[in-house]
Structure formats: structure tokens, C-alpha cells
């Protein structure tokens, strides 16, 4: 095969790769997975990278700084933090999305069994800012 043919094939592959774009739902799920990992790694600042500067929670009861403070308190109170996300439903409408999920949160001294835990129903709003999806609001209700 001649050099020109190889160059043409490589060019086509590169163009196809450049045209490929990760679907919005997948990007939101990846952001949620990163937030989950940040909590478990006890890194509130990393979690907050995926929240919008105008974040509000529980119908205005918590702002972005308040959410950051809640996370820091949990890190101080618990040697170990676990987050298990249940079914996640993502509904994307243009540059906005609504996500419904269940989260089981556990914490304790780091032993085999958590000392306490709770299950929450979470509904969050997401918006596209540039190439990223950021959470701009959320409500959470304890279920168990």
C-alpha cells in the first residue's frame, strides 16, 4: 500500500475521531461518578468542581458555600465515607438536564461495617457551561 493511501486512511480516522462527541448523558454520569469518588476520597474541593457557582440546594436552604461546608463536616466526622448510587435517570433537554437518583451514604471509623448510614432520594438540575456539565441545584430527602 502506498504512502499516500496510508496518509488518507490516517486522515479519515483522525477526522472521524475528532467528530466523535461524548453524549451529554454520559458526560453527566461521568461527572456524578467523579463527585462520588471525590466524597469517598474525602476531597470536598474536588466534589465542588462539578457544582455551579450559583448552586442552590433544598429549595434555597443551602447555597454553594453551605454545601461545601456540609461536605467538610462529614469529612471531619467520619474516617471513612461510602457513597453508593442506585438507579440514575438522566433527562437531557438541550443545555439543561434533570437527574433523579438514589444514594446510600455511610460513614464511620473505617471498620468493616459503617457506624451509620442513610438512603436519600436526590433530584438535581444540571446545566452545560462551556464543555462541562455542572450541577446548579439539588433537593435531597432522606428515605431510610
Please characterize this protein's 3D structure.
- This protein has four helices and six strands.
- It has one domain: Nuclear Transport Factor 2, Chain: A.
- With 144 residues, it is an alpha+beta fold.
- A six-stranded mixed beta sheet has the order 2-1-6-5-4-3, covered by helices on one side.
- The chain has helices at residues 3-19, 24-40, 44-48, 64-77, and strands at residues 51-57, 62-63, 80-93, 96-108, 116-129, 132-142.
- The model is unreliable at 11-20 (pLDDT under 50).
Topology:
Layout: H1 3-19, H2 24-40, H3 44-48, E1 51-57, E2 62-63, H4 64-77, E3 80-93, E4 96-108, E5 116-129, E6 132-142
User: Mind telling me which CATH architecture this is?
Assistant: Roll
What sequence of helices (H) and strands (E) makes up the elements? Answer: HHHEEHEEEE
The helix tally amounts to 4
Q: Could you say how many structural domains there are in total?
A: 1
General form? globular
Low-confidence stretches: 11-20
On the 0-100 scale, what is the average pLDDT? Answer: 89
Q: How does the helix and strand content classify structurally?
A: alpha+beta
Q: How many angstroms does the end-to-end distance come to?
A: 65 Å
How large is the share of residues in beta strands? 35-45%
Main sheet record: 6 strands, mixed
CATH fold type: Nuclear Transport Factor 2, Chain: A
| Order of neighbouring strands in the sheet with most strands | 2-1-6-5-4-3
Give the helix proportion (percent range): 25-40%
CATH C-level name: Alpha Beta
- How many strand segments? 6
Rg, Å, rounded: 20 Å
Question: Could you provide a short overview of the structure?
Answer:
This protein has helices at residues 3-19, 24-40, 44-48, 64-77; strands at residues 51-57, 62-63, 80-93, 96-108, 116-129, 132-142.
Amino acid at each position: 500500500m502506498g504512502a499516500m493511501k496510508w496518509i488518507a486512511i490516517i486522515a479519515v480516522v483522525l477526522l472521524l475521531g475528532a467528530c466523535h462527541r461524548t453524549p451529554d448523558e454520559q458526560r453527566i454520569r461521568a461527572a456524578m461518578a467523579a463527585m462520588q469518588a471525590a466524597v469517598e476520597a474525602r476531597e470536598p474541593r474536588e466534589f465542588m468542581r462539578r457544582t455551579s457557582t450559583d448552586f442552590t440546594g433544598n429549595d434555597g436552604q443551602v447555597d454553594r458555600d453551605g454545601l461545601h461546608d456540609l461536605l467538610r463536616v462529614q469529612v471531619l466526622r467520619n474516617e471513612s465515607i461510602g457513597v453508593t448510587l442506585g438507579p440514575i435517570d438522566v433527562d437531557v433537554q438541550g443545555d439543561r438536564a434533570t437527574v433523579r437518583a438514589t444514594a446510600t451514604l455511610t460513614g464511620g471509623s473505617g471498620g468493616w461495617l459503617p457506624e451509620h448510614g442513610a438512603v436519600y432520594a436526590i433530584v438535581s438540575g444540571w446545566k452545560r457551561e462551556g464543555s462541562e456539565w455542572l450541577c446548579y441545584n439539588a433537593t435531597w430527602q432522606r428515605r431510610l
